[in-house]
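Running this now, will post back.
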Amino acid sequence: MDILNTFKISGSAMRAQSQRLDTISSNLANIETTSTPEGGPYKKKSVYFQSTPMSFQEQLDGNLRNSTQGVKVTKMIEDQTAPRKAYNPSHPDANADVNAFSYWVYLFGGIFITVPIFFAVAPDGGWFGYTPLTTRAYSPGINIDFWVIGLQILGVSSLAAAFNFATTIINLRAPGMSLMRMPMF
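Update: finished.
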């Protein structure tokens, strides 16, 4: 084997390794990517090598001792396993918008219930809000109306928080963890 043939084999191996390193860096850069243009999360790619055999003419010329003339990438395969699920509240798929909506509606509902106290429009139906004391006969003004509307707003906030909690548990639980195998706390 002469020196030029050695450089040819080494060069083909370096080209193949360069493509492999590009693929590895792409895998590392996209490890947290949850949505791709094809839809779904990024799938890891693997590079497979194969030795390049000599041509028929080179075999006729008598180079039978070295039947390998280089390395090439034969195929790139995407990982077909299901994506890993992990609990991470800061993950972009953890419904941060619903969580923020729940907080701001809760704050608005709390203000809606509290502010009327400063304008002498505090609820006058008692702390329990039973029906006889909340009717027009016992609470003729708008006092109890502010209280009831504020409770409705707080209820919307609680429902949004509950939906966010449930979808986070269902979508981001550990791999292989069924709902029946999940611990209570």
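The CA atoms of residues 113 and 150 lie 5 Å apart. More later if anyone needs it.
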